[in-house]
């Protein structure tokens, strides 16, 4: 390869997250509605017959399809399908920070306002129920916080003889914060709680 061709290849590429082609990519929406002269955050309870995470609380969203125009379109499309509303009734959609989970997924969260929430007809095959929490309530509370520790376990035939330190190598294991929010009989945790905490931090910024 000539140096000119190498320079052209490097000049024309757009950097991405290394290895992102091996990650599953999802987009979700933090839906906001106006209710009783207050802003409420809407949550879903996943249907009990779903294969993954039945009965857990989440925001509407799903895997990014090749036919989606972009991550924002995925979040709006999935919200429309799950809540039984027109895409045109989801307005003022803005991006939050995207996140890379330690479980092989990249999640693109958005926040948007749902007009005419009384017209919602949740899809029973995906959504067991929906409920809302006043934003004023969420802004006044702090979640419980716990630590999850990840342990490094190389496979049985790992070539320890090829690395300095061998079996005594000092692996840098990491810790992840896990948050829990409570409202009446509802417990919000996991990815949904992480996105919620980030959203609340954004709206709290001066």
UniProtKB/TrEMBL annotation:
**Name used for this protein in its record:** NUDIX hydrolase
Give the matching Pfam families: NUDIX
Q: Which source organism?
A: Bacillus songklensis
Cofactor field: Mg(2+); Mn(2+)
* Nudix hydrolase domain segment(s): 23-156
Q: What Gene3D superfamilies would the database entry show?
A: Nucleoside Triphosphate Pyrophosphohydrolase
Give the CDD domains listed for this entry. NUDIX_CoAse_Nudt7
Q: What is its EC number?
A: 3.6.1.55
Q: Which keywords are on file for this protein?
A: Hydrolase, Magnesium, Manganese, Metal-binding
Keyword Transferase attributed = no
The major lineage groups are:
Bacteria, Bacillati, Bacillota, Bacilli, Bacillales
């Amino acid at each position: 390869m000539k140096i000119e061709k190498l320079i052209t290849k490097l000049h024309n590429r757009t950097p991405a997250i290394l290895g992102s082609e091996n990650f599953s990519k999802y987009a979700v929406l933090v839906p906001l509605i106006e209710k009783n002269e207050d802003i409420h955050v809407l949550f879903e309870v996943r249907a009990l017959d779903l294969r993954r995470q039945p009965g857990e609380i989440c925001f509407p969203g799903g895997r990014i399809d090749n036919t989606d125009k972009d991550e924002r379109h995925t979040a709006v499309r999935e919200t429309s399908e799950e809540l039984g509303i027109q895409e045109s009734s989801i307005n003022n959609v803005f991006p939050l920070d995207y996140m890379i989970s330690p479980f092989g997924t990249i999640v693109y969260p958005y926040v948007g306002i749902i007009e005419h929430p009384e017209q919602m007809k949740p899809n029973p095959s995906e959504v067991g129920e929906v409920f809302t929490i006043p934003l004023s309530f969420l802004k006044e509370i702090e979640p419980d916080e716990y630590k999850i520790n990840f342990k490094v376990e190389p496979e049985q035939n790992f070539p320890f003889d090829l690395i300095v330190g061998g079996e005594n190598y000092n692996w840098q294991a990491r810790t992840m914060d896990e948050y829990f929010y409570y409202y009446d009989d509802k417990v919000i945790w996991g990815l949904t709680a992480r996105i919620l905490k980030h959203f609340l931090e954004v709206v709290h910024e001066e």
